[in-house]
Amino acid sequence: MAFKIISGLVNGVKGGVTAALSGAADVGSATVDAVRDVTVKTLKETGEFVEQGIDVPASIVEGAISGVAAVGTSVVSAVKGVVNGSVQGFMQAGGKQEDAVGGAVGQAVHSSAQVGEDIASTAIEAVKGAIEGVGQVGGDTASALRQAVSAALNAAKDISDDAYNAVADSLKAGIDGAASIVDELKLKK
Length: 189
Description:
Number of helices: 9
Number of strands: 0
Helix content: over 70%
Shape: globular
């Protein structure tokens, strides 16, 4: 599923994340807070975005990944924090968990493919980030696992059959509880 990227939101998030991470001693740990804070601030200033659903967290992830790349950090190493912060910020601004998880994880996988990063590793980190983000705002982590695995697989399926198989295998091996979800979703494929 391709997302309708909201360019104004992408650019605002990219600028905010780049500014927040420039000069940070530990970019990895600063990423969650930077993305969450920029997301909350941006969505509160322009409240109409939350109503646009799944495209909003996808746009946030696109902007945040661009911001992270602008300060010279690898996408795979930062994606967990980017997804975590995006999910937290979107949900804190009133967005639905399903939209937050689906948009953030799906776009993380798409973005990693666009920049030539390891899609399977990105999927694992994105799923972990989504579950942590949902947990930190008091959401339902069990349903977040299912939503995140499904979003990662759907995004990989859009890329290629090889990408789908690589993501399915990596999620089964790298995420507790994902194997049964992957198997169930493969049956429906």
